[in-house]
Amino acid sequence: MIKVLKAGFFTTIQDKGRFGFSSIGVPFSGVMDTFSADLANTILNNNLDYAVLEIAFNNCSFQFLTATNICISGADFSPKINQKAIKLNQKIVIKKNDVLSFGKVNFGARTYVAVSNGILSEKVLNSRSMFAGITKSYTIKTGDILQINQNYNEENNTNASIKVNENYFKSKAIECFKGPEFDLLSKKQQKQLFETGFTISKDSDRMGYRLIEVLENNFPSILTSSVLPGTVQLTPSGKLIILMRDCQITGGYPRILQLNEASINRIAQKNTNEIVNFECLSV
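-> structure tokens emitted (283 positions)
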């Protein structure tokens, strides 16, 4: 078991998300950065659909009430075990009563903590991913006890680590494809879209990343249509919204771009006031 000593600003349990329920309005949810979560699970030899902790904005700590292995991937929030610094992307042996804490943000926006055999929270609609109105809680809270596999065996413990290029977190390039309403844009608007550096606003979360710069919008209203994570909507004000993992199932704004999976992962590691550039992969 893991005791949450300090929950931090926004810490959740996430897995790959819940699929097959969009017809009843249930979002996909799941880890924001699948690359980093998959990496942590892979290093521990876990299944890729095992639940992990997704931590945003650091400032949290956990006490392990049973021995296990962990791996931390994604953003660098200066992780420590018992106040001693530990490395990212490496299997870490945890003993009973060890305390994991996070401090200074060095890069990235979300870090992932995988444990051997995953976090064993309740499954709802085939997923452990937290989401308001679906799971009992939207985030973990200070004092919570998180269930993990208690049959951990320290024998045959091996070290494993992977080096990740920090350019993954620092690159401004966001690859995308043309969206269904892209051709409604004038040539001038299309050029502006791909030549402008867009700044991530403070009004960004797991539902969507809102961008500050404005693209002229003189489109008529469109019928509400399907959207999915990575859809880039152009709002009536001219501002763009990049829909993320907790986004709604349908929307009424023009869908001018669609991010690929790698770009959804990359944008999930961007913080407020960082700048991104769209790069079109469509022919």
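The longest strand covers residues 68-76.
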